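Field guide to reading this record: the first block holds the primary sequence, the second block holds the structure written as discrete tokens, and the final block holds curator observations. Each block starts with its own label. This record concerns ATP-dependent DNA ligase, catalogued under organism Cryobacterium levicorallinum.

BLOCK 1 — SEQUENCE
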Amino acid sequence: MGKLTYDSILTADFDDRVLAHIQVVVGAKLRRGESFYFTWRDDPQAGNGRSTIWLHPGIPIAYKYFGSRSPTLNREWIEALMATANSSGGLQIVPEPRSPFAPLSSKDEP
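BLOCK 2 — STRUCTURE
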């Protein structure tokens, strides 16, 4: 589990793969000087609610990864996440699109 730390105050845990994709989207938006909301579901241990932060280029963000290797990035997922970040509701974590070449699991079969 990786950690996103916002303004040295708020810390949220995300899977390393999710966090890597969030970092790309947040970095792209903040590089352009764009502010936006980021909303996610809280861990059940934190009450099973949701959290929202206002991301602004002047507020520090840190990403800490548990694993030492960088995850492979999925361009389609980055585009899907960016679409939410560009909406009025702000960035929200959406499921990763499955590769059209990925094998079906038994639960995916009709």
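BLOCK 3 — OBSERVATIONS
The chain has one domain: 2-97.
Helices lie at 16-31, 75-85.
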